[in-house]
Model the fold of this input.
Amino acid sequence: MHTLEPTGFDLARFDAAALARLSAGEPAAVLSHRAAAFELFSALPVPAARDEEWRHSPGKLFPCAAFALAAPLRASGAPPTADWHEDFDAVIDVTDETFSLHNRAGSLDILPLAEALAALPAGVPQHRRKFAALGQAFWTAGFFIRARAGAPVRLLVNWRFAAGGKLHMPRLVVAVEPDAHLTLVERFQGLERGTTSISKDWKADAALAVIGAHEFHVGAGATLERVALHEWHAATICIAEDAAVVAERGRADWVTAVFGGRAVKLTAGCDVAGAGAAAHLSGLYFADGTQHVDQRTLQRHSSPDTTSHLLYKGAVRDQSHSIYQGLIQAARGAVRVDAYQMNRNLVLNEGARADSLPALEIDADDLKCSHGSATGNLDPEQIFYLRARGIPEAAARHLLIAAYFEEVIGKVSHAGVQERLRAAVAQKMETLS
Amino acid sequence: MSADVEFELRDLRVKNGAKQILQGVDLTLRRGETHALMGPNGSGKSTLANVIMGHPDYEVTGGDILFHGQSLLGLAPEERAKLGVFLAFQYPVAVPGVSVARFLKAAVEAVRGKSSGGAGGFLKGVREQMKFLEITEAFLDRGLNEGFSGGEKKRLEILQMLLLKPALGVLDETDSGLDIDALRIVAAGVNRLRGPDLTLLVITHYERLLKLIEPDHLHVLMNGRIAFSGGPDAVKQLELHGYDWIRDQVGAEVV
Done:
């Protein structure tokens, strides 16, 4: 077995031989596409505990090397089975190492990634990150999605992986063409409930590992609404590094919700890259037990006259730990930029912890840029007010926690997803007094 | 003790942190009576209101609070509410994310149980009271007290009182921050509920409220004690002469 440096990531098993094994049976063009990403992956340094970003999420929490790489997806032809599928124009169901695809939309193309290499847009520059590059080289479950101008389309992607000790690497490359409108809901689930017992032996207990690298290209005047719903079971480790680039007058609305997973490290980067482009990034997370939820966001303004608004709201209870790191970057000359970033955390008991680390890197003037962070427990005056109206203390706390998340839940357009988010919040509160 | 005593404070002593605020307050309210409580800033009026409702920041260091002869001291705020105690807050807190409609329903169900008329019957009753208080229906969908003006907040407090139908209502400076029109509406709302089944303690700074909600008794709180108790005529005396009149009446050594 591997010996791990206590704080480092052991990524040695991701070598050229492993890449060739994974790609065996794929067309030669796929291997050369993978190899280009592998070159970038090899050139980037391994994240270390001394890096500010990874200080709270050392490699020992993410023992990816203990997992066998899943086989590339094969089509199953199964009918769509998931909730909500009737509300969507297209559904991709990924179940472990198989997938099925249902597409009724005339203006939406969905192709397995291996069949779409020639159509891929050029990569997103800020996607030059270690795990993003790993995902671009080693993806096992990849799709190319292209929304063309026309009627708005809704796509549901269900990622369901069994807790069988495998490492799955999902990857979407999404192109929303000029003036197109795509709503994308991604739901990530483990197929079985894992153990919730508290153990220091992460490697022995983790049952499923996922490394994702999604890429979104939002064209001029186009709109992408994306919801990522992480409902992993308690024995999953997940690292995902997603990036989006939004062209002039385009708009990206992202909602990332994290409820499940033993250790989760998500990066969401969005470049508002053309004049008039806007991004709205929202986050909702609720950790309990010994969950570790680390999220990093990047709002990059590489063009003048751009907007990015971010609101991430989380709650931690029991012994769980959340980390939020946000960065706003305005490139030189990016004037008349409107950037806003707010992170709020509810720490529901002693022993739970929420770290909030907002940052700005501004290389321009003439911009409106603000960020803030607030961490604390529920407001005792609100609790008293509700109790004075006969609502018992525990119910008052539940009501206030649910209310706290409503601000983010309201940003999701699909009613079924909203209900699921409310139910997931309620589930997290079940044993909360 | 007479059988119709509804509410009684006996030698009530209360601390907030290290500070002793109430130094032994005695008050007796009979069923259906309206008592006004006045007093200068810092005399302990709001402390009294909060401690009646069971605010956790206040520590009762002596005495008792009796409602129908039963001590409220060991009871949680929600238990007091269910017994029929209502506090109209001086500064109602905003609760974004909880709509007024949802909150009213939760409160009414908690205090009075689920209504037999269902959700439709409940809303009908709410709408009728809202109309009386000149609150537009759009408020039902807004976050509780979120972005409300002072007058809107106070009207919503009285709406809650009308829906919860308490046996004891404590109004903590419900008139503060109200213009004369809003004051008249709020007072009309309170008067709508007045009768033998409602005992009221009206805490205020200003006589103008007491012209609209006429009390049976007036008390003046000074330095954590009741310094003066009198009939409704005393309101005029206070208006004319201010609290110095009380100081003269009871002697400077007390206050």
In short: DSSP finds seven helices and 23 strands in chain A. The interface with chain B takes residues 379-382, 384-393, 395-396, 399-400, 402-407 of chain A (CB under 8 Å). The longest helix of chain A spans residues 393-409.
